[in-house]
Amino acid sequence: MANILMVVSAADSLTMKDGSEHPTGYWAEELVESHRVLREAGHTVRIATPGGTKPTVDQVSLAPESAGSPEKAAAFTQYISFIDAELSSPLVLADADISEYDAVVMPGGHGPMADLAFDKDLGRILIAADNDGKIIAPFCHGPAGLLSAETENGDFVFAGRKLTVFTDEEELGGGTGENTPWFCEDVLRNKGAVVESGPAWTSHVVRDRNLISGQNPQSSEDVAKAVLSALAE
């Protein structure tokens, strides 16, 4: 069985274009579904955050209309409660030794745009994981964390790699809209990533060697299943 490092944002707000603070955190479906699928397959999942701070769930993601139904919202809430001990005592990201893990999984929510995108410890972990060919699996806004992976010369490690991410269309139509401080799709494209988008709000997973990415919350379970397939290879 594999050891999986799940890197989760510790941010609870995002500074918007107009300077206001937008409450955020991790998106419930993304953390819950990926954690559940990997755990039920028998793998060990260790949650890590910047500073070892307990991550904050984006409350919007627990609303029935966001979760998909009252039943799904209740299930997400129940699972978060079930793993509360893990969430309350996460590994300090700076202390993570990638040699101890087989994969890095990065769920989203807008939180990664506030911290993981600029986290040097995450950058170090991702570069080492990529050099070793270990699975790296960010999804929705999680790929914002890939931006932390730059060489000493400032080169983006994932330039030229195929991936997907929460699209500009989805951000404008159902995300934080015109007030979004920056758009993940645009920035990743400008850094040299080859972004391949599917239809909005439908599951879409892209694999480029050891890099597995998902477009949106709807992709959460499929990303986790793709990680399982890759681990079995």
TrEMBL record:
Highest taxon, organism lineage: Bacteria
Classification via InterPro entries: Class_I_gatase-like (IPR029062), DJ-1/PfpI (IPR002818), Prot/Nucl_acid_deglycase (IPR050325)
GO molecular function: glyoxalase III activity
DJ-1/PfpI domain span: 30-229
Any one Gene Ontology BP term: methylglyoxal catabolic process to D-lactate via S-lactoyl-glutathione
SUPFAM superfamilies: Class I glutamine amidotransferase-like
Family statement drawn from the similarity comment of this UniProt entry: Belongs to the peptidase C56 family. HSP31-like subfamily.
Protein name: Type 1 glutamine amidotransferase domain-containing protein
Organism: Arthrobacter sunyaminii
Lineage per the UniProt record: Bacteria, Bacillati, Actinomycetota, Actinomycetes, Micrococcales
